[in-house]
Design goal:
The structure holds two protein chains of two kinds. Mean pLDDT of chain A is about 90; it is low at about 200-214. By secondary structure, chain A is mainly alpha-helical. Helices cover about 45% and strands about 0% of the residues of chain A. Chain A is elongated and about 55 Å long. Chain A has one domain (about 10-170). In chain A, helix 3 (about 65-75) crosses helix 6 and helix 4 (about 90-110) packs across helix 6 (about 145-160). The longest helix of chain A is centred in the middle third of the chain and has 20 residues, at about 90-110. By secondary structure, chain B is of the alpha/beta class. In chain B, strands 1, 2, 9, 10, 11, 12 and 22 form a seven-stranded mixed sheet that branches. In chain B, strands 6-15-16-17-14-20 form a six-stranded antiparallel sheet, sandwiched between helices. In chain B, strand 18 and strand 19 form a beta hairpin. In chain B, helix 5 packs across helix 11 (about 420-440). The two termini of chain B are about 25 Å apart. The chains are: A mainly alpha, B alpha/beta. The interface between A and B is large, with 68 and 76 residues.
């Protein structure tokens, strides 16, 4: 995978004035997340891994950010969002029902478990979920597009973009207290920020997609 | 800190310690009243407790369950609710703007909404006091509205995102200015602490870990303690008690695993536009079966949010918008100056979403996931955006009620119904078009719109001059129960087209003076 910011590592700032003690404690805990499910069953766990691999596909030349572990942690510890659409059940119930429905949809569409579909088939199914086209009785009345938009996407992508690995990929400065920044203007950069990205960053999305998948 | 016993009859029990509660608590205590401020959230020490991290710092938000519905359900949480001593000012973006004078009489002068029962000149006086108390950093000359003095602290320098707002505004012939912000641009020595100048770390909306931000937590709360008030944290008020005489007698609150009762001569509800009506409704008795202060039937009604749509694009240059306060430049727009065909005003500001929020925008506004999401996110350092704060009109159908479902305290959760009106949609589309032109003028490419976002809240306990059409009088005192008051954004009859926190604080300062005047006349 071509890196945009080669050599940049947010974690290298851990012992600099950019990280206060509380930040070190919080990020240490994040990196030490439990890799075993405490909320999900083994079957749900496998489906969730397959789902996370499609929502945020990760390069194969590094260990993946364990996205299902963060979803599991959120549900196990009961971290809420502050709101819930009236048509959705509470978050744990929504996830259990949604994963079961995804498996039921995979069986009826392809005759195989979701985990064994190829990525194109998985994406096609998820696209139908996003568009609200899935109607298997296993949804039990839960609108599939609301589940996708308000459970699947935020719970998985928030976990990814709260991880230092993702910060390195996008060139985010990361934790910044108490030092902060001195150079704020356009095209200005402090020495403790990611160096300027490789010029390839400005390719089109599709061109980047092809290269990133290599 | 002075502490009161539950069975001590205090003069005021104030429920909520945010932009409305904290200044009221401080000013009442400084006037000699005995005051207990209760807050459902913790009393944080930012230097020790705050990380530079979006996810960890969501602990500052009100994340308890709330059910949202309607044609345009309001996303609750970070942008409109706080659960900490200091309320949402602990994580607000510090934007400190005055409402335009005409907005206080929008019904009479502009033909929409409702008039405020408070004169704009009186508000102007209290805005000045609030700006001094919060040491607002802003320009020498503010380009819109009647004259105001220069801000106490010099304006902050612009970051890349703000430079682009300025460049776009100038290309379109619009005025712009560095945003007046509640974070100090030079050291401040408080009576009870110190604030170093802002270091531009960019995590403002996730709590300031250096105390540069002039939140209630570092301004009026220390003043309140110094004046002898008690701040009781982790105290969730679940019910206001009504005595046999029909007056309130104190509050039931949950703390350390059990329910307590604090006696009080007066109760002030300052929980903001969801928790305030929730508490008033949940305190219903046989005498007041529809909830307290609700003879008008308007408690919970006329909920307003503000439109918060945005346009984003990609620059050829690095912007790195994660540095500095997110909204360092602003341009205001007033519909009655330039003949738009809708009511209300709006402003827009530069933006600086951090990665999790930026991912949320990609997934919600564009529906991106998979490799397309990753590709979009990798342009992070080149992104630029403009985001509006727009006025939405009061509509009694937008409201807060109680659901059957209960929360961790055993209290019924709030059910929040919201739908935009035709005027709201027209204002949003106008703003989106303007913001898009501004971004095009600076050469941003691959523009996209975030069409569905909202932020601040108001309404649900509106003030007025008629008991039939308002919940509280111009002093924030309920029409029905003379020792029950409301002091937060709930009392707004209209919500204006700029961020509301400075107006909430200014109203609270006014309310404290009014209470002192009433007490002097034995009318309390």
């Amino acid at each position: 995978m071509a890196e945009r910011y080669p050599g940049y590592d947010v974690l290298a700032k851990r012992n600099t004035p950019s990280w206060n003690a509380k930040t070190r404690e919080v990020i240490d805990a994040r990196l030490a997340v439990s890799r075993e499910p405490r909320f999900f069953s083994p079957g749900e766990w496998r489906t969730l891994w397959a789902l996370c691999d499609r929502i945020v596909p990760q390069p194969r030349d590094r260990a993946p950010v364990p996205l299902p572990a963060y979803v599991d942690e959120k549900l196990y510890t009961g971290q809420l969002d502050g709101y819930r659409y009236a048509q959705l059940p509470v978050q744990g119930e929504a996830w259990r029902r949604g994963l079961a429905a995804l498996e039921a949809e995979a069986q009826s569409a392809c005759g195989a478990p979701f985990t064994q579909l190829d990525p194109a088939q998985q994406d096609a199914l998820l696209g139908r979920m996003q568009r609200g086209e899935l109607t298997n009785p296993a949804w039990q009345g839960m609108p599939c597009q609301l589940f996708f938009e308000h459970r699947v996407l935020p719970d998985i992508t928030h976990a990814y973009y709260a991880h230092p690995t993702a910060w390195n990929e996008i060139g985010f400065g990361g934790p910044a207290s108490p030092r902060g920044y001195a150079r704020m203007g356009l095209d200005r950069r402090d020495p403790w920020e990611a160096p300027r990205a490789l010029p390839t960053t400005h390719g089109t999305a599709s061109a980047q997609g092809h290269r990133s998948d290599g | 800190m002075r502490e009161f016993r539950d069975d001590e009859l205090v003069d005021f029990a104030v429920v909520g310690t945010g932009a409305g509660g904290a200044p009221l608590i401080a000013r009442l205590a400084e006037s000699g009243f005995s005051v207990v401020g209760l807050d459902a959230g913790p009393y944080y020490r930012p230097l020790e407790d705050f990380a530079s991290d979006e996810r960890e710092q969501s602990k500052l938000y009100w994340l308890d369950e709330r059910i949202v519905e309607g044609a345009n359900p309001i996303v609750m949480g970070g942008k409109n609710s706080g659960k900490a001593v200091g309320g949402s000012t602990v994580h607000f973006a510090m934007v400190s703007l005055r409402f335009r004078p005409e907005w206080f009489r929008s019904r009479s002068l502009l033909g929409y909404g409702a008039d405020w029962p408070v004169d704009w000149r009186e508000m102007w006086h209290y805005y000045g006091i609030a700006e001094q108390a919060l040491r607002i950093a802003g320009p020498v000359h503010y380009p819109w509205g009647p004259w105001r003095p220069r801000y106490p602290y010099r304006a902050h320098e612009l970051n890349g995102a703000a430079e682009l707002l300025a460049r776009g505004a100038e290309a379109l012939g619009m005025r712009w200015t560095p945003t007046p912000l509640a974070t100090v641009s030079a050291p401040r020595a408080h009576d009870h602490g110190r604030s170093p100048p802002c270091v531009y770390r960019g995590f403002c909306r996730f709590g300031c870990s250096t105390n540069a931000k002039q939140s209630q937590l570092v301004t009026f709360i220390p003043r309140a303690l110094a004046a002898g008030a008690e701040i009781r944290d982790l105290a969730m008020v679940g019910r206001i008690e009504v005595g046999a005489d029909g007056r309130v007698s104190g509050v039931h609150y949950h703390r350390e695993g059990r329910w307590h009762f604090q006696r009080a001569r007066h109760v002030v509800v300052a929980g903001y536009a969801i928790e305030t009506p929730r508490l008033l409704l949940a305190s219903a008795t046989d005498r007041y079966p529809n909830g307290l202060a609700n003879s008008s039937g308007l408690v919970g009604r006329y909920l307003m949010t503000q439109s918060n749509q945005a346009v984003f694009g990609t620059m050829a240059q690095e912007v790195r918008w994660y540095k500095g306060p997110p909204s360092l430049a602003v341009t205001e727009h007033w519909n009655y100056d330039d003949h738009k065909d809708f009511f209300g005003g709006y402003c827009w500001m530069a933006q600086g979403p951090l990665p999790v929020e930026w991912a949320t925008i990609q997934t919600s506004a564009r529906g991106l996931w998979g490799q397309a999401l990753r590709d979009a996110m990798e342009k992070y350092n080149y992104q630029v955006g403009l985001k509006m704060v727009g006025e939405m009109l009061p509509d009694e159908r937008n409201r807060v009620t109680l659901a059957e479902e209960k929360d961790q305290y055993g209290l019924r959760v709030a059910r929040i119904h919201y739908s935009w009106g035709a005027n709201d949609k027209a204002l949003i589309q106008h703003a989106l078009d303007q913001m898009q032109m501004s971004l095009e003028a600076v050469g941003a490419r691959d523009l996209f719109r975030q069409e569905d976002d909202t932020n601040h809240l108001a309404g649900t306990a509106r003030m007025g001059t008629d008991p039939a059409s308002s919940v509280v009088n111009p002093d924030g005192r309920s029409w029905d129960i003379p020792n029950l008051w409301v002091c937060d954004g709930s009392v707004f009859p209209t919500t204006g087209g700029v961020n509301p926190s400075l107006t909430i604080t200014s109203l609270a300062l006014r309310m404290a003076d009014r209470i002192r005047a009433l007490a002097a006349r034995s009318e309390l």
